[in-house]
Amino acid sequence: MARPTKSDDPRRSILEAARALIVEEGHEKVSLRAVAAAAGFSPASLYEYFDSREDLLKTLAGEASNRLGATLLKAADKGKTPAAALVEVGLAYVDFAREHREDFLLLFGRLESARQSFSESVPSASPYSVVMNGVREALGAAGRRATQATVEQVSYVLWAAAHGMAMLQVTHLHGFDADFRAADRTGLQALVRGLDLAD
Amino acid sequence: MARPTKSDDPRRSILEAARALIVEEGHEKVSLRAVAAAAGFSPASLYEYFDSREDLLKTLAGEASNRLGATLLKAADKGKTPAAALVEVGLAYVDFAREHREDFLLLFGRLESARQSFSESVPSASPYSVVMNGVREALGAAGRRATQATVEQVSYVLWAAAHGMAMLQVTHLHGFDADFRAADRTGLQALVRGLDLAD
DNA sequence: GCTTATTCCTAACAGTGTTCGGGAAGGACG
DNA sequence: CGTCCTTCCCGAACACTGTTAGGAATAAGC
Question: What is the predicted pLDDT for the residue at B78?
């Protein structure tokens, strides 16, 4: 009932072209026109599939969030105890940022989308829920001796710690030669110990 | 020996005009032309005082860094013990981000400058050194029982924790209603405890 | 063979950072 | 006085950006 599309899945091929460009140049330097050219479309045609450049980036960020969530989920299984699992999740978070820098920055480095309030952005609902589930387990295992902090508070603190490590390494300490992973591990371990989650 | 300048200190008035605009709109939405108009210059004239828009923002970021450093320095005195001082510094870091959002984002929210490697950016050399001095003291006070982690490692971990909290509150959790400060305090306290710095 | 819906593009608009060339203004010097 | 030179400043343009309006091509349904 219509003119045939150039690609089997134009939306997908646009997304892939965009991601490829972003990986090499950084999302803030990738223009809509460049994406269009790489995907074999005219600039205006992208608007058939995305409301705006922001919409395109938001879609890619959503996919990145899914990848991050899956990675964290796998990491949670590696810990032999609930507390160790939390450390693994934190490390996986930072590793993800290091190894998929542009994915991470797509998620957390775009001020335009970060400026709007929480409910509209929630970019990492799924990754965050992985952390919360881990905390719930660890708090249960720690039992009485645990902090009286809530699950939300503890989850936020752990997320923030890992997020800070990731953010620094990916932005202002990028290129700085140091064994960050070792420091991250001791930091996260110290944090779960200090929160009385350790076993 | 020259034509008189429009303002006594044109560079300063440009910087102030820019900062005013940035505070209300966010640095990424402020155009050079808007700054020029607000300062009473033509767009081209700004290039008499700054190499580029980036240069202007970098200058503002430097001033923000100084303000942050001074704030942290004051906070370091509030702690009754070296360990407590570290917690205060961390809290001051996050408070600064909350209360001077645009200053903080100018420092840590501009990917363009964050993408280049460490030596060229080091935006927070002074703030960071405040943390390191605090850690040195706390490690000394803790003596033998302290972790065998280096000053740099401990400083990095503390910085990262505070930075993560600040970053999340200023970006993706912005607008979310919660008592972040309480969580931040327990988190930072737990961290210094877990690092065997507490007294 | 129409109609209708979808896909796609050309052309344009308003905005951006930046550069070029020159005008205006005043101190220094003949 | 007039000339030079330097500094300050601007208008106009360039190449780029995201976005939109309007129309052409292509196929399916009737």
Answer: 94
Q: Is residue A189 one of the residues assigned to a domain?
A: yes
A46 with A96, same domain? no
Q: How far is CA A112 from CA A53, A115, B13, in A?
A: 11, 6, 27
Question: Which of A167, A171, A180 has its CB closest to that of B164?
Answer: A167
Nearest CA distance, A77 vs chain B (angstrom): 24
Q: Report chain B residues whose CB lies below 8 A from the CB of A174.
A: 114-115, 117-118
Bases of chain D below 7 A from a protein C-beta are 5-13, 16-22, 25-29
Q: Phi and psi of A46, rounded to 5°?
A: -60, -25
What gap in Å lies between CA B30 and CA A176, rounded to an integer? Answer: 31
Look at residue B171 and tell me if it is in a domain. yes
- Residues from chain B that touch A156, judged by Cβ atoms under 8 A, are 168, 178, 180, 183, 187
Determine, yes or no, domain membership for A1: no
Q: What count of residues does chain B have?
A: 199
Query: Residues with Cβ < 8 Å from A113, sequence gap 6 or more?
Result: A54, A57, A58, A61, A121, A123
Q: Which two tokens stand for residue B53?
A: 């828009």
The predicted structure's pLDDT at residue B115: 67
**Whether residue A183 is found in the same domain as residue A158:** yes
Minimum-distance CB partner of A164 among B147, B162, B180: B162
Q: Are A152 and A129 in contact (CB under 8 A)?
A: no
At A104 the pLDDT is: 98
As a whole number of angstroms, the distance between CA A167 and CA B185 comes to: 21
Interval B67-110: pLDDT, tens:
999 999 999 999 999 999 999 999 999 999 999 999 999 999 99
Task: Go through A108-136 and write b for each residue having 16 or more CB atoms within 10 A of its CB, e for each that does not.
Answer: bbbbebbbeeeeebebbebbbebbbbbbe
